[in-house]
Write a structure and sequence with these properties.
The chain has 535 residues and is mostly beta strands. The chain contains 2 helices and 34 strands.
Length: 535
């Protein structure tokens, strides 16, 4: 903790950092399909240490996977310092040597980031230079190799990004309430061709252009990306070029917010190595246009962005009733309505490795989500959140591991979430969920889940303690032996920058998605101990 003390007056700079360790002790549970874990105890640990002195900063991250937790790639096993950097940041130039994260535009041609929940880290090991010469112009250049667990990618990555605030160039626009931004990016990789059968491109480039317009009550952002042909494992060695279009718009005024989004993706899976699969070595990121649900049952069937091809729209409306209306009053009702729809793009193969695609919506629906949430504070001591979610989900497409010809799954989920203040700094939260389940085909009933019910109670003694118990019950399963309870009990303590949590329970098998990127979480049973602190 003493390292957090600032020594700026003596010119010694200051240290800061954080520590996190997640442990799980596994128990065999053949009832839910949780297999025996020979080590019993597995752990993921992280320690960040950063130093700042004026314009100079540096940092390291130590990671320890004493066998990674179930659901994380086994190639993480081990320990070391995969992330370290030194940086100088001035008014004109910003230089980083070592590891860094970066994003060009919306990420359609390049995004490097970390998400520990997904076990995802594609940091770049190399050099980055940022220039801000003025006139509303900013430039970024990078070169390096992408993290590949404890090594780096075979390919060398190079990229440049430019962003221009157009208003800065014209006196007539400098005082305007409407701001115009123009940007462009280019990213390329070099990977040697070692394929004995195919002639593969060794240098593959991807570029994008983007335009942003923002005012007092609206935002419009559009980006078009193009990727040169890049035959790989994930696109079945297609020699087609790739392209993507993303349009995001929003309008907001007193009590009302509307978001309209559209994207079309065609062969935009862009990786640092041709044979990489899953969430490994992704160079780019394709922003999803589906709602990211936070309740357990509403998130049971999340959607993974189809990198090889999809087209979709999303609309979300947020509305708060005026206080002068019947639905308003002292504590007005707040509503959020969301509609998302993702379809295939129709393609016709012209040869083994080439195809033609149409721009419009394809015949096959991949995913559809219609949801309505209503938030209401009834008094200073009682607040609520109610929701209803309707989803259609093509399990064959979204999971790529479901039984073939499984067909479309339709689920309807209702949520009631109430929080009661029971004493000074003490509150009780009760959450009830129910899912109605229907599948299109009965070819593989063993993969069917049926209806679910869920209940949670959480007691909080602010600002330090919290306790919770939860049960998810698959009562509607067609097979009696699968009508199982997935229960969890947790207690936690928070003090200053430290958080400690202990829990015991069952984890159902499923897909975990964050921002359209997904990984499979296997079923498990056991104790979890998590501790994190920052200084």
């Amino acid at each position: 903790m003493i390292f957090s003390e600032s020594n700026s007056q003596t010119g010694l700079g200051s240290f800061s950092g954080n520590f996190e360790i997640n442990n799980q002790y596994y128990l065999k549970d053949s009832i839910i399909g949780a297999s025996n874990v020979p080590e019993k105890l597995r752990s993921n640990g992280f320690f960040n240490l950063n130093y700042v002195n004026g314009n100079i900063s540096a940092g390291i991250r130590y990671e320890n996977y004493a066998q990674p937790l179930l659901g994380y790639d086994a190639r993480f096993a081990g320990s070391g310092i995969p992330y370290r950097f030194a940086r100088y940041s001035g008014d004109l130039i910003d230089i980083t040597a070592g590891n860094f994260y970066e994003q060009f535009g919306s990420g359609m041609v390049f995004r490097s980031y970390e998400d520990r929940q997904l076990g995802f880290d594609n940091s770049i090991d190399g050099a980055r230079i940022k220039l801000t010469p003025g006139y509303g112009l900013s430039l970024t250049g990078i070169i390096g190799r992408m993290r590949n667990f404890w090594a780096t990618s075979e390919s060398l990555l190079r990229g440049v990004d430019a962003n221009l605030e157009i208003n800065s160039l014209f006196e007539s626009l400098k005082e305007s309430d409407v701001i115009f931004n123009l940007g462009g990016s280019f990213m390329s990789k070099y990977q040697a061709d070692k394929d004995p059968l195919l002639k593969l491109p060794e240098n593959v480039g991807a570029g994008s252009v983007r335009l942003g317009i923002s005012g007092e009550s609206f935002n419009i952002n559009g980006e078009y990306a193009y990727k040169a042909n890049d035959p790989s494992y994930t696109n079945l060695n297609s020699y087609n070029s790739g392209n993507g279009l993303l349009i995001q718009t929003s309008y907001f005024t007193d009590g009302l917010g509307i978001n309209l989004n559209f994207h079309r993706i065609d062969n935009m899976d862009f990786r640092a190595e041709r044979n990489a699969i899953g969430t490994v070595l992704n160079i780019n990121y394709l922003p999803p246009i589906t709602k990211q649900h936070t309740y357990g049952l509403t998130a049971m069937y999340p959607y993974s962005t189809q990198l090889n091809g999809e087209i979709g729209v999303q609309m979300e409306v947020n509305y708060t009733f005026p206080k002068s209306t019947f639905m308003g009053g002292k504590y007005p009702w707040q509503f959020t309505l969301n509609f998302s729809n993702l379809n295939s793009i129709d393609t016709v193969h012209t040869s083994k490795y080439l195809y033609d695609s149409e721009f419009g919506f394809g015949k096959k629906t991949f995913f559809q989500d219609i949801s309505l949430y209503a938030y209401k504070k009834f008094s200073p001591d009682v607040k609520s959140n109610f929701g209803f979610v309707y989803q259609k989900y093509d399990r064959d497409i979204a999971e790529k591991g479901g039984a073939p010809t499984f067909g479309m799954v339709t689920v309807m989920t209702a949520v009631a979430d109430m929080t009661f203040k029971v004493a000074n700094r003490q509150s009780l939260r009760a959450e009830l969920q129910h899912m109605f389940y229907d599948q299109e085909l009965e070819v593989h009933p063993e993969y069917s889940n049926g209806n679910w019910a869920s209940a949670l109670l959480e007691y909080t003694i602010a600002p330090n303690w919290f306790f919770s118990v939860m049960d998810e019950y698959n009562y509607g399963n067609e097979f009696d032996e699968k009508k199982l309870h997935y229960y969890t009990a947790s207690l936690g303590y928070i003090h200053s920058g430290t958080r400690v949590q202990l829990s015991y329970g069952r984890q159902r098998e499923g897909i975990l998605c964050v921002g359209g990127v997904c990984r499979l979480v296997p079923s498990s049973n056991g104790f979890n101990f998590n501790i994190s602190t920052s200084f």
